[in-house]
Amino acid sequence: MKSALARHDAISRVAVESHAGTVIKMTGDGIYAAFDDALDAIAAVLELQIGLSDPANTCGMLLPIRCGLHVGVVERRDNDVFGISVNRAARIMSAAHPGQVLLSTPVAELIGDRLGPDIALRDLGFVRLRDLSKTEHLYQLVHERLRADFPALRSLESVPNNLPEQLTSFVGRERELAELKDLLATTRLLLLRGVGGIGKTRLALQLASQVMDDHPDGAWFIDLAPITDPQLVPKATA
User: Fold this and answer.
1) pTM for the whole thing?
2) CA–CA separation, 198 vs 184, rounded Å?
3) 229: pLDDT confidence band, cut at 50, 70 and 90?
4) Are 19 and 44 in contact (CB under 8 A)?
């Protein structure tokens, strides 16, 4: 695996830099990259997917990868990029299946009719992604050397749940979320306490949306605030 990941990193870097892209950082088994032209990004991910789909290029190991493309304003600081656009690109990538390339509507609009005759975009409609305040209209990159058919996207709708849609983005509290994830893995009941209005419910909902993939039966929100009789809690839960 060590040798395969080294080949993964080398192929990824060549694919980005040979198409006028900039490698922002490597993330262990992934890569963040930026391009001035969306068409260059398409060419890079296509070369990357094809290169990593051949086990001969990765020490005999098959390394199907997920790709997500988005365009927007970013903040550059200390050789890194930050901003809502970066977070949205990461969410789009996380909704894909291994071997799948997803792109947002702004990317599709920038590409326009500049795609080659052997490349197409498949409209996947609107999906609700984790930690985003509104649905995202996504497209899949289609090419004869890429896998074409995949299960439903890894969106909030694909896992059973009734989590309410959040109208604002979740900002900060990375340390608290990491601690809660560790605690939730070791207990059957986790209680958040604090004065009213500090964001306990919002934090719990964010935690639920992030750990849903670990629970095949989904994540469920039960509002106990209107209940005054403790005897009604089991009924509300059921």
Assistant:
1) 0.67
2) 20
3) very high
4) yes
CA distance 159 to 60: 33
Q: How is residue 206 written in tokens?
A: 């964010």
What is d(CA 20, CA 40) in angstroms, rounded to the nearest whole number? 7
Q: What does the pLDDT read at residue 238?
A: 86
CB atoms within 10 A of CB 42: 27
Q: Which residue pairs, CB below 8 angstroms and at least 24 apart, start in 34-41? A: 34/74, 34/81, 38/69, 38/71, 38/107, 38/110, 38/111, 39/110, 39/111, 39/114, 39/115, 41/69, 41/107
Q: Helix, strand or coil for residue 106?
A: helix
Residue type, 134: K
| Fold that domain 2-156 belongs to in CATH | Alpha-Beta Plaits (3.30.70)
Encoded tokens for 164:
């309410």
Other CB atoms within 10 Å distance of the CB of residue 120: 14
Confidence band (pLDDT; 50, 70, 90) for 214?
Answer: confident
Least confident of 67-81, 100-114, 159-173, 192-206: 159-173
Indicate the domain borders of the chain. 2-156, 159-224
Q: What percent of the chain has pLDDT over 90?
A: 34
Q: In 3D, which of 134, 126, 113, 114 has the Cα closest to residue 152?
A: 126
What tokens appear for 130 in the block? 């984790």
